[in-house]
Amino acid sequence: MTVPSCPRPAILVVDDEPEMCALFEEILSVEKAEILSARTGVEALAIARRTRLDLVLLDLRLPDVGGTEVLRRLRRLDDDLPVVMVTAHGSAETVRTSMRLGAFDYVTKPFDIREIQRVIRGALASARTTAGSPIASHGDV
User: Fold this and answer.
1) Interhelix angle 92-100/67-77, nearest 10 degrees
2) Which domains, ranges and CATH numbers included, belong to the chain?
3) With the C-alpha atoms ordered 36, 116, 39, 68, is the resulting torsion angle positive or negative?
4) Of the candidates 116, 44, 35, 29, the residue with the CA atom closest to the CA atom of residue 74
5) Which of 43, 47, 104, 130 has CB 3.0 to 4.6 Å from 82, enough for a Cys bridge?
6) Counting Cβ atoms within 10 Å, is residue 100 exposed (0-12), middle (13-18) or buried (19+)?
7) What is the reported pTM?
8) How far, in Å, CA of 14 to CA of 1, rounded?
9) Who's near 60: CB < 8 A, 6+ residues apart?
10) In angstroms, how far is the first alpha carbon of the chain from the final one?
């Protein structure tokens, strides 16, 4: 009997800094994931509407829509999608808000590579295991 191979996880990296996106692509290469990237919150939400994602790595500060608002809108699209907040500008209040909105975890830049890999693996392990269709658009999200 042949065991079907697991599809590659789809991971969205949302960060306005190209260097940070490149770093995450390098870190995620060991996960054999399909890596998508967005530089703005609007772009991230558009990707989330048309793609079945397994994980989102989301910067708190974006040039258009703030990371916590993007998280809030992602929750409207898919309440089970693991979202890891990543920021260099965190505060206790933003951590509390992110966790209350359902963030899987919160990582502060600069971060230890092994720490972020541990968080990513934990988030992927908690992600859905069944294949699904792209997320449909939901009104004003």
Assistant:
1) 10
2) 10-126 (3.40.50.2300)
3) positive
4) 44
5) 104
6) exposed
7) 0.84
8) 40
9) 66, 67, 68, 85, 86, 87, 89, 90, 94, 98
10) 44
Spatial distance between the Cα atoms of 72 and 50, rounded to a whole number of angstroms:
17
Listed in order, strand segments (DSSP E) in 1-81 are: 10-14, 34-38, 55-59
CA 31 to chain centre: 14
Q: How far apart are CA 107 and CA 58, in angstroms?
A: 10
Please give the Cα distance from 104 to 68 (Å, whole number).
Answer: 13
Asked whether 31 and 10 are in contact (CB, 8 A), the reply is no
